[in-house]
User: Fold these one by one.
Assistant:
Number 1:
Amino acid sequence: MARNGKQNQNDRKRFGLETHGFSYICCCMKHSKIPLSQTVVTLCKTHNIRHIVISPGSRNAPLTIGFTNDDFFKSYSIVDERCAAFFAMGIAQQIQQPVAVVCTSGSALLNYFPAVSEAYYSHIPLVVLSADRPKHLLDIGDGQTIKQKNVYGEHVFYSANLKLDLKDEQKIASGEEVPMFKNLESKFERFLGFQKDIQTYNESEIHDALTIANLKSGPVHINIPFDEPLYDMVEELSINPKPFKLQNRVEKVDEFEIKSCLDVWQNAKRKMILVGVMQPNAIEQQWIQELADDDSVLVFTETTSNLHHPDFFPGIDKIIAPLEDMDFEALQPEILLTLGGFVVSKKIKAFLRKYKPEQHWHVDLFRANDTFFSLDMHIKLTPNTFFSTFLPQVTHHAKSDYKSKWIAVRQKRRKLHEDYVDTIPFSDFLAFNLILKNLPKQSQLQVGNSSAIRYTQLFQLPKHTEVFCNRGTSGIDGSTSTAIGAAVASKKRVTFISGDLSFFYDSNALWNNHIPKNFRIIILNNNGGGIFRILPGHKNTENFDTYFETKHNFTAKQLSEMYGFGYSSVSNESDLKTTLETFYNVGKQPKLLEIFTPSRKNDEVLLNYFKFIK
């Protein structure tokens, strides 16, 4: 079907795409015959949602047809819905734009829930497009039918439940007669009116959902009922969406709020900034330097903060763990300023809950958590906007030895840390030391939850390493899938470090045809949930081994072979050093390194570490 330039221009105006810079061409493109599917696909394009992760199914066939036949979209096929949602979330984590996941009806969309909840608490824009049965086919005993309306409850920022197209809308659009309304012109017009109302409602709901996903940077759910036939295709769109204006996120600086903070800030001699999860390069270097130049400011960072300066304080637990009450009192801040997402360190949480600051301000565009039960103010700005507004108005810094005192403590702890590493046997601790020292330059590190992220926190990572971890709900599910999605979207090579249980729990993540060849997985296999050996409890009993630590004898070797990964394994320091020398070399396939460590030594090595540095 050839279309001239004037026709294409009219199409762009008709669908509101010209305003938003899209080049819409309908030349020989296949569309689902169902107007509702056409509407969803067209409006996703209008909102510039390019990445579409599809899990195969029948009820979602109209959406699959629409997305996969349009070169505007990059479509991925991931069979396991739980893996698919985390994979999509990994892409969205990197590009900071909405990514859509598409599934069939029934239990499929329930498998998205872990990723939806993680996206909700991590503020990652995930768009769930779930196909559904028409109302008259629900609760009649048919398979794969559940109550899909508002299924995610309060874990999404918007739930859109679309309306089914009227059955004969295609005949009406083509001017054919509808049998039930034959020779009844007034009823025919009413029919047209009903369909127009449905189309208007659906367009509005889709626009609202996609706009909120972008503005609130979080998950939304669009539930889409389809009636059979599901696979019919056409070359011309039968819809005509109304033009609309895309909304941009706007930050409003409250000058009164800023000024109310200034006097308190300038006169305080002990100011602590605690940074949780944050995107790389979220704060300009000039503001980082200005904070570092203030002797009354301590900046505590975590590996997931992606914030670096020689005068900042990474490795929080190294500093906090050995302190006595007198030291805690000296560290207690007058002002606590928190930035970013959730904090990993339990020790800093315990400290600030007991030794509360006089004032606690949280700077975040979306949410403020009262983690330390002392929150006074939520400043609804991005950290960079806040500092660029606030710091130029700071006229003087209070004289203080707050930072210099704790820099001395930090240097002492770092020396003791290095001394301890030289004394320990092969273990998780020693393996992490070697792994993190040998990461490729200008690379990205994805870290699994539980013990993996907590070990990583103890080490000082190079400035050039970006670090990500699913700290919204802090679950072990989906970490591998998220890392693979991130590797697909990132321009940097990605290494994923995981514990054994987390890896095996999400092993379907490797059932994926999109994994880059330079992607690397490192598994610390201590034959169970080693972190539970660190926690209080009765260890070395059958009950503990079975129900807490979950002992096993699995290895990732067979999985690696099945999914086309290069596999290697080590169980001592010498072999690990040798393997890491070539592990990141370019090859024809992604690689997996499995490190076997002694489960009965790991907890002893870690617990003795905190005694040693004290």
Note: Residues 424-613 form a domain with the Rossmann fold fold (CATH 3.40.50.970).
Number 2:
Amino acid sequence: MKKIKKLWASRVFHNYFLLLVSFLLLEILFHLIDGISIFSVASLRVFLGLNLVALFFGYLFSFLPRLLTKILNLILVFIVTIYGIAELGFHNFLGVYASISTNTQLGAVSSYIKDFLASFEWTFYLMVIPFFLLLIYYIFLDKKVCLKMPKKKLTHLVVLMKMVPVFLLVLLGLLYCVTLKVPFMQDKYQAISTYELFKKPTNASLVVRNFGFTFYGILDIKEYFFPGESFSSIELDPDDLEPDHGDDPEIEKVKYHSNINNTTWLDLINNEKDEELNALNKYFISNTATTTNEYTGVFEGKNLIVIMVESGNEIMLNEEYYPNIHRLVENGLHFTNNYSPRNICSTGNNEMSAIISLYSINNNCTANVYQNNTYFESIFNLFNNKGYITNSFHDYYDWYYDRSVIHKNMGSGTFYDAVDLDLDFSYNYPAYDTWPSDGELMEQYLKIIDQNGVDQPFMSFITTVTSHMPYNMSSKYGDMYMDLFPEDYSMELKRYMSKLKVVDQAIGILLDGLEERGILDDTVIVLFGDHYPYSIDTEKINVALENDLSVDNNADRIPLIIYNSEFESQEIDTYTSYIDILPTVANLFNLDYDSRLYMGTDALSKEHESLVIFIDGSWKNENAFYNASTNEIHYYTNNTYTDEEILAINTEVRLKLEMSGLAIRKNYFRYLEKALNNNHTTSE
């Protein structure tokens, strides 16, 4: 008993124990609140990691005056507490965990802080319990239970206790390293090894599940300042490649959408010294090329207008409230299982993904960070190559995303924002009249059509804004049509639906304007939403929908409609996302493109895989939903997967996300375009 008291009297052990208990309680609360199992093998690694952190700071603070040590312990636990609450909030709000890599966007999103905080569940604040327990201990109990060590009699013990933590740190560190590689500590469903994930924490959800949120924060800081080098090596067998059929007169009924000559590409691979670029070369050339089908060229030569609706979810499909959007459904392809998975910067990143068919990087505002990248295979450039007038529109200014640069580099001939279009809007958020009217946007858009003339085909990408949050405060368009909706709907939901009414009217203005100009039949409209309406509880939205948004990422289920006035209504039930829009449109318009360059596929082709990939590595199809955060699979049918099949899908998902991110970081498509052009010039 005396030895225990003496051990407790050691300031190192005392600090270590208090910090460990605090961190451990925080992790348990975090796991329980976020639905992550605490009864898993990974919990052992989390526990070892917390021991390392607690022992390190406990030893470090032991050299300081006792009062200062107490203050620093409280500050440290408070910081971890606030960080944990923030991560719970981000995961609830955006579907992903925050990263220090998103710091470039802090100035822009700081105006949303009230909406962000308002979305917090009350359970998130249970995270403050460990901090207050530590505070209570220091105020009322510390002096009663903490013994002072006699300096003369225990001098050697003091020296020993000062050295023991160093040895313990080394031992714990070695044990921790063992858990990264030992087989029984690996997840059988995980396509990336725990060791690779530790070196380069690219998937936040997997990192949190494997290492805990505290260690995720540490690894995230490490990755920001000292990024790891890790990518999947791709083995390439030329015999497995799709053959070049472009010039084969024997091929009449079926044609591969692969316009890059394999021989040229293989020569590039054989001469490329950069391993990352060659991994990308091998990955893309080995992708399965899609073939022509009954939908190929049905819209060839027509105009195209792509409309991405701000916060547009399936509520838009209500015929009673939104008749103009329903007109699109009545004469269009309606993809009933379409998703717009959330990420750190869903509007800009999902817009980017729809334009280039690549997944954004999950821990940054990819569209902004890599705004100088170019993409010769983008939807703009495919239509540029066909002689179309291309342009893009957004009825706000370049505060959140640098579209004037981003869209130009993605191939848009001209980008127009709210300033260019002389729209009435407020620079201050939030304000009663913050967002402009999408109706006014469409009126100005029709004027641009008149200026350009209708003799030359055009392709436009329009991003709306009226239906943007906030919904928890009075606003011009949020209040305008509130009386139309049931009284039992929440105030936030009615304001959101009121704003959607303005969007629907804008669609009506566009359709009527195209008809007045005699080009409605010659125009195709693609409409989809960027993400579900943040800051409204899913329970409040559920009252207006048949699907429960709180389960299986249903909140990310968003309409996708491809409309033409002369087209018959069809429902397509294959699972799709914004990543499939570009290759689907390219086939419908019979554009010249290489389908292997896209992460999505033509959703109407036989090669399309019915699968939605979420940014955290989760996935969903008609059979099941796999949750990467919890490592659980929920089946919808009797068709179950073996462990090997789940691992195979996870490996495919990992490669798509990883190679997409690597392609963006390396500006791969600028490189490929130059390399192919140089090769073509040399061969001539």
Note: Confidence is low (pLDDT under 50) at residues 1-9, 149-154.
